[in-house]
Structures are given as C-alpha cells and as structure tokens.
Specification:
Elements: H1 27-41, H2 51-79, E1 84-88, H3 98-105, H4 108-116, H5 123-128, H6 139-153, E2 158-163, E3 171-175, E4 178-182, E5 195-196, E6 202-206, E7 209-214, E8 220-225, E9 228-240, E10 247-256, H7 259-267, H8 271-282, H9 298-322, H10 330-333, E11 334-339, H11 346-357, H12 362-372, E12 373-376, E13 387-389, H13 390-396, H14 398-418, H15 423-429, E14 432-433, E15 439-441, H16 442-449, E16 452-455, H17 458-468, H18 470-475, E17 480-482, H19 489-495, H20 498-508, H21 529-554, E18 563-568, H22 577-592, E19 602-607, H23 615-633, E20 641-646, H24 651-657, E21 663-666, H25 678-684, E22 688-691, H26 697-704, E23 710-711, H27 716-724, H28 729-735, H29 737-747, H30 760-767, H31 774-793, H32 795-807, H33 814-826, H34 839-842
Parallel strand pairs: 1-2, 1-11, 2-10, 11-12, 12-16, 16-17, 18-19, 18-21, 19-20, 21-22, 22-23
Antiparallel strand pairs: 3-4, 5-9, 6-9, 7-8, 9-10, 13-15, 14-15
Helix pairs in contact: 1-2, 1-4, 2-3, 3-19, 6-33, 7-8, 9-11, 11-12, 11-14, 13-14, 21-32, 22-23, 22-29, 22-31, 28-31
The protein binds ligand 26Q.
C-alpha cells in the first residue's frame, strides 16, 4: 500500500549531492555539520551542549554523509534491477552505530579533530554515551548484523527486514547476586540512525475467518476476512559497507493502529473501543521476546512474526510492481533468507499473497515461493524448535492454516509415492505434529518451502541431516548444506581493537580489514621476539582498559598482569557456565590447601543474561556471584584468583571484552552449540580457546592447529553413548576427590553465607541426572585448565600461540560466510555502485527518488 504518490518532480540524482557541503568529509566540514545540527536540528548552542547533544549532532552529521551513497545504492537497483538479498530476521543486534559508520566512511580522525574544537579530547567520550539498540537476544541477532555489514562491504544488494521493537532485550542489573531485569528504553534520548517512511506503510490482518467464493472466471477461491488489522511503518537504517559506495537498507517495521478501523468504531459511538484496538495493535512491536521457551506471550509472538513477514513480502512484491516486473519473476529479483523459523510463516504468507492477491495458480505460486526462499537452522535443542498450537494458529491465521494443510497434503502425496505403505514416515515428515495436542512444526514448513536449508557449522549441519531431519535429508539430500558462521572483522577487530589493528597494519598493510586471509603473513613473525612483545603489549593495553571498567562497574580491583579467563554469552545450562564456576571452586580449594604450585594467576570473568523465566540460568548467575564474593574477600586469593560477573553484557561491552581476553571459554556439551560466534571474535583478537569439540570450535581448532587450542571433553558420539547407557554422574563425583570436595563446600553453604538451601536445585541437577554432562567432563576440563596454567608460565610461547590464532582466523570473517551464501544458495553477484551526476538522467522524468 502506497498512500501518497511520489510527485512527478525532476529531482537531481544522488551524485549531485556528493560534493555538497553536507557531504564533505574533512574535519572542517564535520565541524560545520556538528555546529549546524546542534543549532538547527537540536536547538542548542555549542557552549551549552551536553555530551549527548554532541553525540546526536555528530551522528546527524555522519548520517548526512551516508545519504549520497544510500540513495545512490537504492537508485542503482531501481535503474538497473539486480537480484537482491532479503534477510528476514526477528532480531538484528546491530550495536552502536556511530563509530562503525565513521570507520566505514574513513573519517574517524576527522571526527576526532572536529570534536576537539568543542573541547572533547577523545572520540571515546562521545562513543560512550551512545545507547545501543538491543534488538536481539544473542548469537542469532548478532549474526544478522554481521551479515548485513558484510553484504554491504562486499557490495551485494541487500535489505534486512525485521521489527523495530520499542523495548529491546532487557537491561540486566545485579542485586544481591541475582539478576534483575529492567526495561530497555533505547529510544528515550532519540535515535538518530533511522529514517521513518510512513508513505511506504503496509496493512496486515489477523483473526477472523475465510470464505469461499466463485470469481468472475468461475473459479473457486478462498478469501480471508480478518477482524483485526495493524499498519507497519518502515523505519530504515542505512548500512554502509567498508570504504565502498554500497549502502544497503535495514528496514525495521513499527506497528501502528489502523485509522480506518478507529474511525468506524468512533462513528458508531465506541470511542473507547476504538482506542483499545489502537493500543492493542501498537503493542505488536512493543517488546522483544527473550528466548526462554515459556508459553508466556506466545500469541503475541506469533503475531509479531506474521506482522513483520507480511509487511516485508508485500514490500518486495510492491517493488516489482513499481518497476513493472511480472510477479512470476520474483525469484529473479529477490532471494529470501529465513533466519531460523521465526520468519518461516513467510512460506504460507507468500503463497497467500500470490494466490489470493495476484491470482497465480497453485503450481506457479509454489514454484515462485520455493525458488525464492531458503532457511537457516540455528538449533538442535528440541525445546527451541518452534511449534504452534493448532487452535492458537487457526484463530490468528485461518487462511494460512488452510494453505499449510494444502502444502502438507501435496507434500505427503509425494512422500507416499516414494515410500508406499510407510505411515510412520508420513507422521514423522508431516508439518502437523499429531503426538499430543496438534501443532504446526515450523521447521518442517520451512524445510518443505525452501530450496536450501543450512546449518551454521560443519558438525551442526551434519547433525541436522543425521538427527534433526533425517527423513527430509533422505528425501532431498541436495537441499541440505553448511555455511559456517562468521563475524565482521570491521567491528570486532578494526573498531574494537585499535591497537592490534595498528600492529597488523604495520605488518601486512590495511587490506586485512577486507581480506583477513592476509593475516597468515603474520606467521613469519612467530619467532620475532620484539614483534611478539608488541603483540603482547596490545593485549595488555586492552586488559588495562577492561580492568578500569571492571573496577568502575563492580568495585573489584583486578590485575591486568593476571590471565583474563573469559566466558561471555547467554546463560544456559548447555553452555555450562556452572562447569566453569565449579572449576573456579577447585582452584580456590587448591590455593586454600596449599596445592596451587604452578597455577597461573587468573581473573575469571563471566558475563551474560539469563532469560527472565529460566530459573536454573538465574540460579547460575547467583552461584557465580556467591563464589565471587567469597573469593574476592579472601586475602589468600590475592594475586592468584579473582572472579567477576560483568553485568549487562551486550555488543558494546563485547567490544571491550574481546581485545582484553587471554583465554576464551567455549565449553558447551558436545552437540549442543550450533556454532557459537563469540568463539570466533575471541580467536581473531588473539585469545586462546579452551573448548569442547562442539559447533565452530571444531573448525577453529582445525584452522589454528591442535597445538594452539586447549581441547577437552567427550565428543558428541561419546555423549550420545553415555546417554544411552544409564549415565551416572555420581560415579564421576566419587572418582575425583577435588570434585566431591567442591560439591561438599557448596552443600555446606560456603558460597551462600551458610544457606544450605540456595543452590540445592543446581546440585540436584548436577548429581541427579546431569542433563548436560557437567560431571562427565569435569576431570578432563580440570586437566586441560592445568595445561593452560602451564602454558601461561612461558609468556613468549603464549604470545606466539596467540599470534597464530589471530593469523589463522581469516576463515571466520563473515565476508567468507557471505560469499558462500552468495555462491551456493542465493546466486547473487556484487553490484558496485557508481556515484555520478549524470545530466541526461535529470531530463528523464522516470528518474524519481521514490
Ligand atoms: C523462540 C520462541 C519464543 C521466543 C524467543 C525465541 C527465540 C529467540 C531467539 C529462540 C531462539 C533465539 C536465538 C537463538 C540463537 O541465538 N541461536 C544461536 O545462533 C547463533 C548464530 O547462528 C549460533 O552461533 C549459536 O550456536 C546459537 O545458539
């Protein structure tokens, strides 16, 4: 729906603004930009401007400097249609924007110079006041953000589609050792990076019923008569690539109430009813749901999914209509990637739009849908696989249910031909789960609707084929593939770790920023003592900064000379923060018992949020804080052991943590972590990993070499065997005095001020059925940690291993991942954008900037 027609004006092409003073990138032009935005946009005079005012003014000035490239990029595709990636994701954890845009524009120094004239000595002071939009839970949302950055840097036309949550992931406070959740009001001070586009709003329906009718050609058709509506207003965020003209669009939908409906209710005298519907539809994009798998808010979550998916598909279809391209050609112009099943309703919604609105035949509609859509799976955990109760689904999306039944009927018909008389396989493959209450399996809908399905690390993709969807893999082996995750070196090295970046540039030039494989040249330096010292010094500088932050946030003094041993990620039992915590207790006991010879002095740092409804995860946070309190107050631990829980772990804090880490803890139960991406950020920044053979750890170990990685733990198949052979955690406890002693201390209330009840649920889980095999892996973990301690004694050797980690981490650049998606799934090519001020195009009346 486009409410206002663009005016038939002859507007200049974007290039005509490229030398406009508002696009100037010298320090003077940036200074003028800040001054003018303070005055004209914010209504402030420089002498009274706060740090936040300066942040806003500089951000607007930087945004001005994105516009030429942004509009040129959008215009280039309109003028010369290119296949474009539509990345559909319920989460985009994009992090702070200012420094990233400065880096990609290449004007960090100019901005700093300009700020000095306002009395601001360092750009850092301004960056500190930026609020980050927490529009994601963790890895999956951050991956979407890294991929948007790489797409732009690789000059691939792409649009990210998602939701503009008014409140993102909660902020975490720690009170008396417990997590307390606080609403994330990220928009309160204004957010300068978005461009609302109310003219491009879309309508979305919910509820109601379907009815059959005969159309003008005598064809039976179904139509949906929804009872509820919402309007999606796009809020566009420019995503500039690194030192290229490509500036893609992240289009986030905000839900608004439908005015027509309000007016109807208003006219019949139900003013308050009208206001109520307005309130109800506006709550649609109100808040991001945490991934706690509870039933709370499920209905609203399904509404959110349908809301953003429907708006996004309508938007893509409309873009074809605007350019006069036949709808049947959809898959030549768009490739739609589903980031997990959260947007999987797209398969049904696409069919609905094609059949009900564009009147395509079923077969054609299916061909268009199937050739456009691909699906990435991010989890094997059964509790994390999305299923929707049939009654809930049909009350919200009755037409989609009809279509899903028909998709399923046709699919199962094919399966019957392949496996005659095999009812069991029909039950296993069906979109409808009939065990227990009927439910829709979104992973099945996505797998059937997509032309490719991929896992996010090699082991994970194997397990999808062998364990998660084996019947589908047998049916369509060619559909299943792997694309190992990656992270953007721009944010996670160039921006987060300026000192390391400088050193890398001195050695290999700055091209590593877009070609991480160049870092293998650093291997020549591994015997160069003075270089290794410089490498170590860059790390030490990161540790000093983090130590300052830790002191300000928690009051704990930590020694930058100690080993920084870090586990930051969402708190989850499968990630086993409690395994790490238990190991800390064992070290504590060794020190207490005078058996700590050769132990490296460590600062063990934890960070991460627990889903608000996940009791065990919250108890693990309390447990870590209980240990921290005892350890940090004990003079015997001075200079040997410190424990820190960093509150409110987010992208911004991650940027401080990765450069400051010596040891990266990647200790999930084998087979549980799909990939992990923090593991890659650590390795790039030169941390050594202690880890299990899980997710991308396996590939990290392959890349950096087994001798530069601290391996421990049972393999996925060993874990499976244990599970099938009456695993008994108690036998492992009894076999290891250090473990039984640690557990006894917890039972006695040593880490809970004498409270023997507090950690009982945790102990019961560990000593009862220990679902994540913490006890089974403990001894080997401790052994591996002793190897870590030994390696730390020889700091030159440690630095060498660290250097090798950085040198061989190029594979984990999201540029490599995106290239793989482009070649093996999307079939899209780079499309460099030229910025020209073409006089001829000015006379072409079709040249509208719409
Ligand atoms: C589901 C239903 C209701 C509410 C929330 C959710 C929900 C939300 C977010 C379920 C899952 C998520 C996020 C999952 C996630 O982050 N997975 C991680 O994805 C990373 C990127 O591929 C991997 O590296 C991690 O291994 C994987 O755990």
């Amino acid at each position: 729906m486009s409410s206002t027609k663009p005016l038939e004006l002859k507007l200049p092409t974007p290039g005509c603004y490229s030398d406009h003073e508002r696009a100037g990138i010298g320090a003077d032009a940036v200074f003028d930009g800040i001054t003018e935005h303070l005055f004209f946009t914010l209504g402030k005079l420089a002498p009274t401007a706060s740090l936040h005012d300066l942040y806003m003014a500089l951000s607007y000035a930087v945004r001005d400097r994105l516009m030429t490239r942004y509009l040129a990029s959008q215009e280039a595709i309109r003028a010369k249609p290119q296949k474009t990636v539509a990345y559909l994701s319920a989460e985009f954890l994009i992090g702070p924007q200012l420094n990233n845009n400065l880096l990609n524009l290449g004007i960090q120094k100019e901005a700093e110079t300009a700020l000095k004239r306002f009395g601001i000595q360092s750009l850092g002071h301004i960056l500190e006041v930026e609020e980050e939009p927490g529009l994601g839970n963790g890895g999956l949302g951050r991956l979407a953000a890294c991929y948007m950055e790489s797409l732009a840097s690789l000059q691939i036309p792409a649009t990210g589609y998602g939701i503009r949550y008014e409140f993102g992931i909660f902020n975490q406070l720690i009170r008396d050792g417990w997590q307390v959740e606080v609403t994330d009001k990220w928009l309160k001070g204004g957010w300068p990076w978005e461009l609302p586009q109310p003219d491009e709003a879309c309508f979305v329906g919910f509820g109601g019923r379907t009815e059959n009718y005969i159309d003008e050609n005598g064809k039976y058709r179904s139509r949906w008569i929804p009872t509820e509506h919402a309007i999606g207003i796009p809020h566009d965020v420019p995503v500039l690539g690194y030192q290229v003209n490509t500036c893609n669009r992240l289009r986030l939908w905000r839900a608004d109430a439908t005015e027509s409906f309000d007016f109807y209710a208003f006219n019949i005298g139900d003013y308050y009813g009208a206001v109520e519907e307005k309130v109800a539809s506006e709550t649609l994009s109100k808040v991001l749901y945490p991934n706690d798998g509870t039933d709370e808010g499920r209905r609203l979550r399904l509404k959110q999914q349908h809301f953003f998916v429907s708006c996004s598909l309508q938007d893509m279809l409309r873009s074809l209509e605007k350019r006069g391209i036949a709808i049947e050609e959809f898959s030549k112009h768009w490739t739609v990637q589903l980031n997990d099943t959260h947007p999987a309703i797209a398969v049904a919604e696409m069919m609905r739009l094609l059949i009900d609105h564009y009147h395509l035949e079923w077969e054609k509609a299916w061909e268009v849908t199937n050739s456009s859509v691909a699906y990435t799976n991010h989890t094997l955990l059964p509790e994390a696989l999305e299923k929707w109760d049939l009654d809930l689904f049909s009350s919200l999306l009755p037409r989609h249910l009809e279509l899903i039944y028909e998709i399923n009927r046709r699919f199962l018909q094919q399966v019957r031909l392949r496996y005659p008389g095999n009812d069991l396989i029909l039950r296993k493959l069906s979109i409808i789960d009939e065990d227990g209450g009927k439910a829709i399996r979104m992973a099945h809908l996505a797998t059937i609707g997509a032309h490719h399905i991929n896992g996010v690390a090699s082991l994970h993709s194997d397990l999808i084929k062998r364990q998660l969807l084996p019947e589908f893999a047998a049916l369509w082996p060619e559909k299943f593939t792997n694309v190992t995750n990656g992270v953007t070196p721009r944010r996670w090295v160039a921006l987060a770790n300026p000192e390391l970046s400088k050193l890398l540039a001195e050695e290999v030039g700055t091209d590593w920023i877009t070609n991480m494989e160049l870092l293998t040249k650093l291997e020549n330096k591994q015997l160069d003592k003075s270089f290794l010292e410089k490498f170590g010094a860059a790390k030490l500088s990161g540790k000093r900064k983090l130590a300052g932050y830790i002191h300000r946030q928690t009051g704990v003094l930590v020694d930058p000379a100690s080993m920084f041993d870090v586990q930051v990620k969402r708190i989850h039992q499968y990630k086993r923060q409690h395994l790490n915590a238990l190991q800390v207790i064992a070290q504590y006991l060794r020190i207490k018992n005078g058996k700590a010879q050769g132990m490296a002095p460590r600062t063990v740092i934890f960070g991460g949020k627990a889903a608000p409804g996940y009791f065990m995860a919250k108890l693990i946070i309390r447990f870590i804080n209980g240990i921290a309190e005892m350890v940090n107050a004990d003079p015997d631990m001075d200079g040997r052991l410190r424990v820190v829980f960093l509150p409110d772990y987010n992208v911004k804090l991650g940027e401080q943590v990765y450069p400051a880490t010596d040891l990266s803890e990647q200790i999930s139960t084998a087979g549980k972590e799909a990939s992990g991406t923090g593991n890659m950020k650590f390795a790039m920044n030169g941390a050594l990993t202690i880890g299990t053979l899980d997710g991308a750890n396996i590939e990290i170990r392959e890349q950096v070499g087994a001798e530069n990685f601290f391996l421990f733990g049972k393999t996925e198949s060993e874990i499976m065997k244990l599970r099938n052979n009456n695993y008994d955690p108690k036998s492992y406890i009894e076999a290891l005095p250090e473990l039984s002693e640690a557990i006894r201390l917890i039972e006695l209330g040593h880490f809970s001020n004498g409270d023997t009840e507090l950690f009982q649920p945790l102990l019961n889980s560990l000593t009862g059925n220990d679902p994540f095999f913490v006890m089974a892996d403990f001894a080997d973990y401790l052994r591996s940690q002793d190897n870590v301690s030994r390696a730390w004694q020889d700091r030159e050797e440690w630095n060498r291993m660290s250097l090798i980690n950085t040198a061989r981490s190029g594979f984990f650049s999201s540029d490599r991942s995106i290239r793989e998606y482009c070649e093996s799934i999307w079939n899209v090519q780079p499309f460099p954008v030229e910025i020209t001020c073409d006089v001829n195009s000015l006379t072409n009346s079709s040249n509208k900037l719409s």
